[in-house]
Design goal:
single chain; 7-stranded mixed sheet; globular; alpha/beta; binds zinc ion; 267 residues
């Protein structure tokens, strides 16, 4: 088997995905419980104990909720930046009185690539209100996967890192009108809309129209807000911006879900 990508959960209640080559499987973020992660991996026919590492984008709870339990249960290392690690340890200590106990932390630096088995991981800085948030460009067996959720806007540096991706997993968080008219307090609305908040359907559409190279086979819209977005609104904004570039072989738009895993994308 070649490379596959499985988005197990995506949204403000938890994010986690698996990227898999012939010889290596890694978990990207660990935002749902260990038990639920195992359940979803098994539902796709996989074995959670074949995972070899966990890589983390940032310390917000919807990306690390199951992290400690998963790392202990799988006995695998966690890869994260030093600042993300410190922020995570602090939040676990504040919540439980004890720092998290995990087998091994491997610190990485945004902009500096590293390898896990035969998967090359290149982390890069994204604009979001966390300690040291990153997106990832992952490469294995000639396939490139661009992975970016939780960002207020798409800077030129992020466009550069995403260029040439065969699979794009991108945030399409909210519809601006739904957010403005929705139930969140004004302070939260401002945070979500800010340059270090979350990406709206419109801002993602702008990326597709202006900066996207049109190369991906699959585009997964991720981290959709359940309150302030609707899957079909997100889909139509993306499809309109992609326009004639959509075909049976290229730029197929899929929607990641909160409550169940997406069928694995195989490349
Ligand atoms: Zn976040
Ligand atoms: Zn998030």
């Amino acid at each position: 088997m070649a490379v596959s990508v499985s988005v197990l959960a995506s949204g403000s209640r938890g994010n986690t995905a698996i990227v898999e080559s012939s010889s290596t499987r890694i978990l990207v973020d660990a935002g749902i419980s260990c038990r639920e992660t195992f359940k979803r991996v098994r539902a796709l026919g996989g074995d959670p104990h074949s995972l070899s590492a966990i890589v983390i984008t940032h310390e917000h709870a919807d990306h690390v909720y199951g992290l400690g339990a998963l790392a202990r249960s799988l006995k695998v290392p966690i890869f994260m930046t030093g600042a993300t690690h410190q922020a995570w340890v602090r939040s676990v200590r504040d919540a439980t009185g004890e720092p998290p106990e995990v087998p091994k932390i491997e610190v990485f630096f945004p902009g500096r690539g590293f390898r896990i088995g035969d998967i090359e991981v290149r982390p890069f800085t994204i604009p979001h209100d966390a300690a040291d948030p990153v997106g990832f460009a992952l490469r294995a067996e000639g396939v490139k996967i661009g992975f970016v959720t939780d960002l207020g806007y798409v800077p030129a540096s992020v466009c550069d890192h995403l260029r040439g991706s065969d699979v794009l997993i991108l945030e399409s968080n909210h519809d601006l009108e739904m957010l403005r008219g929705g139930p969140y307090p004004w302070s939260v609305k401002q945070r979500v809309m800010s340059r270090v908040g979350h990406l709206s359907n419109d801002k993602l559409a702008e990326f597709f129209a202006r900066d996207y190279d049109g190369r991906a086979a699959f585009i997964v819209l991720a981290h959709l807000s359940e309150q302030n977005n609707h899957p079909e609104i997100a889909r139509s904004a993306a499809e309109m911006a992609l326009g004639h570039r959509r075909s049976l072989l290229e730029n197929r738009v899929l929607l990641a879900k909160q409550s169940e895993a997406l069928e694995p994308l195989r490349l």
